[in-house]
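sorry for the late reply, my laptop died twice this morning and i had to redo everyting from scratch. anyway the thing you sent over, i finally got around to it. pasting the sequence first so we're on the same page, its 113 residues, then the predicted structure underneath. double check i copied it right bc i was rushing
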Amino acid sequence: MKNTSQWVEIGAVDDLIPGTGAAVRIQGKQIAVFRTDDGLFALDNRDPFSDANVLSRGLTGDIAGRLVVASPVYKQHFCLRTGECLEDDQHKVQSYPVDIRDGRVFVSASEEV
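ok and here's the structure:
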């Protein structure tokens, strides 16, 4: 991973399997990066309900027009764009900006989307 200003390079777009997530560590944080047909998204990897770093292993999909990942532990759904929990608005995971430059993926862990 290479740090470019506030952006951290995590690898090539082709390294991410479509429809899945991957966990990366940026500035001491575990972040889940997802590749979908609608683009790339990044969220905290920690599931606030189980307190485990597992969101990158969750299934991605669409609920009522919202792109989501389902936690593999208790199955809550988190919006890939905002990090909001669809079942419990008291819980949210942080979302992060993602950028693609020359086929390489960059994530900014310093500010929320």
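The chain has no helices and 13 strands.
thats about all i looked at so far, will dig more tmrw
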